[in-house]
Amino acid sequence: MAIRSGACTLCAGWTATLPCRRPPATVDRSRRLVQPPCLSTTFPPVQMQRMWALHAAAAIQVEAGDEVLLESPGHFRIYKSGKMDRLNDPTVMPAGLDEATGVTSRDVVLDADTRVSVRLYLPKLPGNQSSTKLPVLVYFHGGAFLIGSADDAAYHGYVNALAAAAGALVVSADYRLAPEHPLPAAYDDCWAALRWAAAPSTQDEWISEHGDTSRLFLAGDSAGANIVHEMLARAAASGDGPRMEGAILLHPWFSGSEAIEGELDAVPVFNGMIWSYTCPGAVGGADDPRINPLAPGAPSLETLPCERMLVCAAEKDVLATRIRAYHQTVAAGACRAAWFESEGEDHDFFLGKPDCESAKQLLDRVVAFIAEG
C-alpha cells in the first residue's frame, strides 16, 4: 500500500495489510464488504532516499488547517493533531463451520468491559480420534496496532487453514486498537488471552477437552509477531508466565531510532512515526525494547521462555534486515531458532495471496515446525 508523509509517498505494506476496522462500538458485523488487502509493499531505493530528504516537507492541508502526518490510502490517515481516520470498513466473518477446511470456530468474550475476546478454532477430528489432545496455538493478528481483528476475513481464512493443516486448536486474540487505546493496551489484552488459554482454572470446554496446553505455541504476523516477542518477554520477566514449546514470528515488526547495517535510512523514520503514534508514552521512543528488542539495555534474548522459535521473513520486505538480526541474536541463546525466508515476496504476502506457491510453502514450514516436537 502507499503511505504518504507530507508531500511524499512510499509503499509500506508492513504497516497495514488488512481492510481497516472501525472502533468496536461502530462495527456493524452484519455487513460483508469484500475489499481485499492491498499489498504493494516494495520500497524502491531511489524513491525511498528522495522521500527521506523530503519527509519534513509541507504536509497536505485538510480539515480547517489540520495536517496529514501519514496516510495509507484505503486504510488509515493520521493527522498532526493526533486524530486518525480509518478509511474503509472491514470485511468481517462470523464464527462457525468452515466448509472448505472442516474447522469450526466460535467467539468467547474474556472481558465484558473492554470487549476483549478470542476466537477459537477446532479442526475436524476423525471419529476414532475424538479424544486426541491437540497442540494449542495462540495467534495475534497484525495491522500496526491500528487496524485488523480476529474476525477479519483475511485472518479468519488464514487461521482456518492453519488450524486444519497443523491439527492445532487455535486461540485467535482480538485486542483493543490504538489510538483509542494506546499501547500497552494491546499487549495487556494479548497477555490476558494467553494466560486464559494456558490456565487450567479458566480453560474453555474446547481447550479442556481437546487441547494439550503442555504443547503451547505462540504465533503472529507483523505487529502480531511483535506481540509474540512481547509475550515471551513478559513471561520471562514475570517468572510465573506460561512456558511455550514454540514461537512463530511471521514478518515481525521491529524497528529502532536509527537504521542498522543494510537497512535504508527512511525505514526507521517512518516506523518510528507510527510507533510514537501507537505508543506515545514509550520510554526511549523507537528504542523502546518492545519495538526494538536489540536496543542497548533491552532484556536479553538469550533466555526467552520457549524451547524453539521459527522466524520468517520475506525477501522484498524492508524489515527483512532487522528481522534477520533478531533471529541471529535469539539463535545465540538457549532457544533453538530456525529461519525461513520467502524469495521474491513482500511483507505479509500470504494474507493477500493465500493460494500462491510461496504461501503454501510458508504454511508447510509452519506446520512442520509445530509437528517437530
UniProtKB/TrEMBL annotation:
The organism's place on the tree of life at top rank: Eukaryota
InterPro entries recorded: AB_hydrolase_3, AB_hydrolase_fold, Carboxylest/Gibb_receptor, Lipase_GDXG_put_SER_AS
Entry-linked SUPFAM superfamilies: alpha/beta-Hydrolases
GO molecular function: hydrolase activity
Domain (Alpha/beta hydrolase fold-3): residue spans on this chain: 137-350
Pfam families associated with the record: Abhydrolase_3
Descriptive protein name: Alpha/beta hydrolase fold-3 domain-containing protein
Residues forming the catalytic site: S222
